[in-house]
Fold this sequence. Notes:
Number of strands: 0
Protein name: Reverse transcriptase zinc-binding domain-containing protein
Largest sheet: none
Structural class: mainly alpha
Organism: Linum trigynum
Amino acid sequence: MQGWGYAGDMKCCLCDSGLKDRDHLFVHCRVSRQVHVSLFGRVLYIPHVQRWTEEVTWAVLKFKAQTELAEVGRVVWQSWVSNIWRERCRRLYAGKALAVNLLLKLIKSEVECFLGSHRVAHFWG
């Protein structure tokens, strides 16, 4: 963004540190990673990726199977990505912020609505 002449704050609006870029937002941001680990940490190995493209590759490979767990994983991962992006926009443009626990509840609620709560009960533990 600096290359385009953007002179605004370059810090991540979720964790107030790190550069405001895609790799930071989805890979290095402590808020985003806290949500990611809370969603996937109990049931899946979480790789130590360094770039967004590695995260996408991990998700594609991890959730490509046609199993119930893979389907839940795909929906959870998609909800994580979209809600982290929405939270970024909420903080940047509305000046409001959700706490991590509320963000997790929102994601879990979305997943349960999409898949049905009975299908994901064993996933949440």
